[in-house]
Design a protein that fits this description.
The protein has a five-stranded mixed β-sheet, with no helix packed on it. Strands 3, 5, 6, 7 and 9 form a five-stranded antiparallel β-sheet that branches. It has 143 residues and is mainly β. 33% of the residues are buried. It is built from one helix and ten strands. Helices cover 3% and strands 48% of the residues.
């Protein structure tokens, strides 16, 4: 069966394109608590078999800040668990002097539950971390 590709560029702009599903989240994070993608994206993110992530961070501050992005899944949008044991983007060091870009992927070896969200966390050894973030998710449905 040929791979079916759907395309949407969904984020703060909420614009849509065709050919490949593509979601983005843009936020300015100023704390060490996790930030989650918007709830309205949960079913879109959960509707595909494979997910490739790209995180872009700039305007970074803090003492040795890091970024972690992990896919979480749920069957009911109330009880969430990590889809994989290790985050797709795991504690990558951020540089304040340049734009940072990191990639990660979920190969889709096990199917996701109906709802998926991204957990994004900044961490720092000293001063609270801060960064302008944009997360892109490229989704593929092999069914």
């Amino acid at each position: 069966m040929a791979a079916r590709e759907r395309s949407r560029n969904t984020g703060t702009e909420d614009s849509f394109v065709t050919q490949r599903q593509h979601s983005s989240v843009r936020r300015f994070c100023r704390r060490q608590l996790p930030v989650y993608t918007r709830a309205r994206l949960n079913s879109q993110l959960g509707g595909c078999d494979k997910c490739a992530l790209t995180a872009v961070a700039d305007q970074v501050s803090g003492t040795t800040p890091t970024i972690t992005v992990q896919i979480e899944e749920s069957a009911d949008e109330r009880n969430w668990s990590s889809k994989n044991g290790t985050p797709e983007i795991n504690a990558q060091s951020l540089s304040a002097s340049q734009t940072n870009m990191f990639t990660g992927a979920d190969a889709g070896t096990s199917p996701a539950k109906a709802f998926v969200r991204l957990r994004v966390a900044l961490a720092s050894a000293g001063a609270p971390p801060q960064a302008h973030l944009r997360i892109y998710a490229c989704l593929r449905d092999d069914s």
